[in-house]
């Protein structure tokens, strides 16, 4: 049985819905993320590199209850053709882990799809706003539950960036009380080969 820390770890990777819950998509309805516009003229090459997770806006009850277990989290993005390989680095029980996932091409720059092997369905990701040099705001949706993530290249975070993120959270019908802020220290840069979970198809 996974520890609460482990559950939180994997929930954060796919933060879009609460654990064990899936809302079926009604016929003919529009998914929330389909209305989110991707960054204009999105450049995967400029987006590539390391990002630090600052905050997540989500209605996931588990995240709200277990937020005190959050660990500093790093994302590394590497373009693979029109797709994006995303590596997430985070400590679990004091050990640095790396999880590699392939967010596939959807035909729209800045919009990606991760095919989850589990029953909760695919994860949609949109890079909605970024200046490539300092911040990026990403949306993720799974099971029709939307979350908003703020990443930065370095700390501290500019107040104007936080304002933009909070506005995006409100536009997603979330409240500031549903924002979980992450530690600003203790980031992992690497993980040994025994602590790498590779979900990228070979």
UniProtKB/TrEMBL annotation:
This is Complement component C8 gamma chain. Heterotrimer of 3 chains: alpha (C8A), beta (C8B) and gamma (C8G); the alpha and gamma chains are disulfide bonded. Component of the membrane attack complex (MAC), composed of complement C5b, C6, C7, C8A, C8B, C8G and multiple copies of the pore-forming subunit C9. It holds the Pfam family Lipocalin. GO terms for biological process: complement activation, alternative pathway; complement activation, classical pathway; complement activation, GZMK pathway; killing of cells of another organism. It is found in: Secreted; Target cell membrane. Belongs to the calycin superfamily. Lipocalin family. The gene is C8g. Residues 1-20 form the signal peptide. GO terms for cellular component: blood microparticle; extracellular exosome; membrane attack complex; other organism cell membrane; transmembrane transporter complex. Coiled coil: none annotated. Residues 48-184 form the Lipocalin/cytosolic fatty-acid binding domain. It comes from Mus caroli (Ryukyu mouse). Keywords: Complement alternate pathway, Complement pathway, Cytolysis, Disulfide bond, Immunity, Innate immunity, Membrane, Membrane attack complex, Retinol-binding, Secreted, Signal, Target cell membrane, Target membrane. One of its GO terms (molecular function) is complement binding. Component of the membrane attack complex (MAC), a multiprotein complex activated by the complement cascade, which inserts into a target cell membrane and forms a pore, leading to target cell membrane rupture and cell lysis. The MAC is initiated by proteolytic cleavage of C5 into complement C5b in response to the classical, alternative, lectin and GZMK complement pathways. The complement pathways consist in a cascade of proteins that leads to phagocytosis and breakdown of pathogens and signaling that strengthens the adaptive immune system.
